[in-house]
């Protein structure tokens, strides 16, 4: 039960922070989802750091990892919003934004995870 509560609390904080970032960074004028992109990249970097620390000499407990990686990063990053925003790009015929957003999200997201793990070596 404690594990569920930790994931719940971390996810709540992550979701609220993602909402705030999206509210202030997503562009209503251009339709470009800078906030979602930023949350996903920052979350990827954070999960790399968190899981890197967890693997390094057991620097984090299982409970801390559940709270921060599964909970906070899980709530902070969002694949469903990413998928919806790509749907909007495709529906409007904006194939260039779709391609740039999708490729940049995957490539930079993966690099951010690797960078996070590298930073804690």
From TrEMBL:
Segments traversing the membrane: 34-54, 66-84, 96-120
Activity regulation description: Na(+) is not transported, but it plays an essential structural role and its presence is essential for fluoride channel function.
Primary location class: membrane
Subcellular location: Cell membrane
Recorded superkingdom: Bacteria
Keyword Flavoprotein: no
Reactions listed under catalytic activity: fluoride(in) = fluoride(out)
UniProtKB keywords: Cell inner membrane, Cell membrane, Ion channel, Ion transport, Membrane, Metal-binding, Sodium, Transmembrane, Transmembrane helix, Transport
Its membrane topology: Multi-pass membrane protein
Pfam families reported in the protein's UniProt record: CRCB
Binding site for Na(+): 74, 77
HAMAP family per UniProt: FluC (MF_00454)
NCBIfam families: crcB
Family according to the record: Belongs to the fluoride channel Fluc/FEX (TC 1.A.43) family.
Function statement: Fluoride-specific ion channel. Important for reducing fluoride concentration in the cell, thus reducing its toxicity.
Name used for this protein in its record: Fluoride-specific ion channel FluC
Organism: Flavivirga aquimarina
């Amino acid at each position: 039960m404690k594990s569920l509560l930790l994931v719940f609390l971390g996810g709540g904080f992550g979701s609220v922070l993602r909402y705030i970032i999206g509210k202030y960074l997503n562009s209503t004028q251009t339709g470009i989802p800078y906030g979602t992109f930023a949350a996903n990249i920052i979350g990827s970097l954070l999960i790399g750091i968190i899981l890197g620390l967890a693997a390094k000499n057991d620097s984090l407990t299982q409970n801390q990892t559940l709270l921060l990686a599964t909970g906070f990063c899980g709530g902070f990053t969002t694949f469903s919003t990413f998928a919806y925003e790509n749907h909007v790009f495709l529906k409007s015929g904006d194939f260039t934004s779709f391609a740039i957003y999708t490729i940049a999200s995957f490539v930079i997201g993966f690099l951010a995870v690797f960078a996070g793990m590298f930073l804690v070596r």
